[in-house]
Protein 1
Amino acid sequence: METTRLEAFADGVFAIAATLLIIDVSVRAPGGELGHAILEAWPEYAAYGVSFVTIGIMWVNHHTCMRQIAAVDRRFLTINLLLLMCIAFVPFPTNLIAEHFHDDGLRAAALTYGVTLTITSVCFGSFWFYAARGGRLLAEDADPRVISGISRSYLPGVPIYGTATLVALWSAKAAVALFGVIALFYLLESSILGSRATS
Amino acid sequence: METTRLEAFADGVFAIAATLLIIDVSVRAPGGELGHAILEAWPEYAAYGVSFVTIGIMWVNHHTCMRQIAAVDRRFLTINLLLLMCIAFVPFPTNLIAEHFHDDGLRAAALTYGVTLTITSVCFGSFWFYAARGGRLLAEDADPRVISGISRSYLPGVPIYGTATLVALWSAKAAVALFGVIALFYLLESSILGSRATS
Amino acid sequence: METTRLEAFADGVFAIAATLLIIDVSVRAPGGELGHAILEAWPEYAAYGVSFVTIGIMWVNHHTCMRQIAAVDRRFLTINLLLLMCIAFVPFPTNLIAEHFHDDGLRAAALTYGVTLTITSVCFGSFWFYAARGGRLLAEDADPRVISGISRSYLPGVPIYGTATLVALWSAKAAVALFGVIALFYLLESSILGSRATS
Amino acid sequence: METTRLEAFADGVFAIAATLLIIDVSVRAPGGELGHAILEAWPEYAAYGVSFVTIGIMWVNHHTCMRQIAAVDRRFLTINLLLLMCIAFVPFPTNLIAEHFHDDGLRAAALTYGVTLTITSVCFGSFWFYAARGGRLLAEDADPRVISGISRSYLPGVPIYGTATLVALWSAKAAVALFGVIALFYLLESSILGSRATS
């Protein structure tokens, strides 16, 4: 298995998972009330946006890792498969939050979303640290500063999403707001801090 | 991030968003009335066609830009992600127009479609002008005439879609017709004016 | 636009259109009657199979053409876009046939399927003959026998699907059987006649 | 047809079929009962996981084969198309099992799942042995030990899935558990036994 084939499959899953999110965005109302219903449905668009951006950033991170990786073994393929399984799962809890934003179900929806993203972060950490531990799958000429930079950036993922999940036990709305803030933070961090050319 | 990987992900989102449009085309009727119902559903096919062509032309334009771009920085990745988020959103307002073509909801549906495409045009402009401003991400040997040609062709996008959106406040049907005419215009412009080989 | 990018987008649309066909295959029944309902739903599987094979063969043909084509102009891009729009439309009439196989709606469904594939054949012919006319977009070293072989194989497409569509006016079941036979014929023709290595 | 194009199309179908599985995962409940309903729906997540992993492993195996294959003839294309048709079908019986896990329909659902995967195994065997028989489509420098290793690993596929299918006649739950165990076995076999670099 060359790394390029793994990337082609992963690209497909990332692109499909993100684009499928739109299937769950729908507004059903009689003609005369449609305008009002479209405005009322803002949690659906917000949930779509947050999950699209979250999957998009994970796609960017996946490639940042793959650029340092020169070889693939079967254990790595397995970890990658579990990671993609988590990412393709994201549309489900996204839809739960959108559907139950205005009712009692929001806590359960937010917990499901948080658990999904926490497990995804665990898989993402395993993905990277399995490849990087002792330079197992890295390119020989990989820059140690880039490697340790990626490693440092992966450490906070699990605590951040784990904390947001625990917040849902206290306040579902606060947790949902936090998921949005985390996505926005990652987006702005890329955009503001990272304006150096990377190719 | 190499430009080729960005293109692979973008290709996926464009192809999936366009192909997913068919999911919303459906006709439900008892057997004996099916023929009539299939003919009655022409706004669904028209909406499918207009949005498929619109997404397809945006895909062509995306590649026209990418051919001039030699480097990618993280801010550009962010803009590209927001652009793709808009494009993957198009099936939602497309379905609203198809569902409400014959009732009072058409104005709200047309406004939603227009706002979506206006924001998409803003993102597309940002995408190109961020890369082109001062030659920031362009190839060193990029032809200045090609660059300014692309820039000129991007300027009318926002006013055109913005105007069509405003027309919806006056007449929903006129706005919907205008969306069709705009797609047809871009399609014919490519076809009639642009028969020069580009590869 | 390089031919490889056009192929990447087309590959995506072909693969998605074929794979999306499964969304419309569904059997809803209470537990105790599920076994019976699954057997009763055979037209759904047959329709899935016929359309999957039809789209798959069109994918093979698309690449057979693209291997002879060295350049792409904007008019060709437009024709290609219209062709892909037809192919991505195929799941809709496929589902009509599956849903109405046992009722009065089959004639209307078969006509819709036939018209879709006839128009698709027209687009496919335009796609090839636009590129091949006077060698407009062909590679300079293209083998004239291969070119005229492809041209010959494209001529019967429109009459074959047009005839099957007309048959639906006389007997819907006969037309549906004919769509299956045509797909099987193309599949076996490839398999039995064409065992020469092509790479 | 070059092998790379066949792989691009196959990659698309594998990635889409796996990612589409999430569409059938849904939980509908009033807000106050959502938490309970999400926990109750565990067979949906399990079915999603088992089928995602199964499709993912088939993707890995497909590429393991393709790495040894240097040429493609039209008969091989046809077999590949039938194989992809089976794989894209997997979401249907997966959904049947998830929907009927707690009712009388599980036996019929398990039989459908088993028959689908048995036929898929037959296609996969045909795919490989057609290419490998007498070295028909293999690279000239293919390592005979790798070839016979792949051949050996393909022989048990049909008996394994065939047996699990027959088990469904005796106990539907046992058959479903077996499908999960088979997927887990293939996953762990890759992960534990196969930690050698393969690129």
Protein 2
Amino acid sequence: MANESVDTLTPLFNALADPTRRAVIETLAAGPRPVSDLAFPHDMALPSFLKHLDRLEQAGVITSKKAGRVRTCTLRPEAFEPVQNWLDRERARWSGALDRLSAHLDALEKEPKQ
Amino acid sequence: MANESVDTLTPLFNALADPTRRAVIETLAAGPRPVSDLAFPHDMALPSFLKHLDRLEQAGVITSKKAGRVRTCTLRPEAFEPVQNWLDRERARWSGALDRLSAHLDALEKEPKQ
């Protein structure tokens, strides 16, 4: 578990923990875009914006490809699978805990009163 | 959108971007635990561990309550809703984009060949 967390979930959650990076993801969810289009709505120096793209690329959330002078970014939706799997696993765990608690309370209720 | 992201998603994703904090969540998913039980498996000074619990509490992921000398932590599973909602929204967006792309390719295929 620890290894899986260190290798994929930590950089992934870090990549998502920033409003600029989430805005880039939201734009790329509609389809690939050149870096210049992505940078345009953000009031930020280009080098700072490129660092955000780097973080996303390093976390495997996006890929980028240069053709001539234009670098185009593409979302990798499959990158979110570890996040979804982690959420699903935790949800299953606490649902199970709630079910056990509820069964326990039912059993207490059915016990003959002292 | 920007406000919603700044207020809830950023601290939430930050809270999840650490293996110790995720391990605490995984333990608490099975039910409330005293701080001492939570700290035990982590090879870490108690003040450092308490900082992790603070981060989780500030992000709304856990609550804690002191009774006598024992502080007990409880998971707030509803805290994950913004994360799940964000993932669902992005998934809907890129599924829509894929559907439109596929419809476009179908239309191209049906066009009379030159």
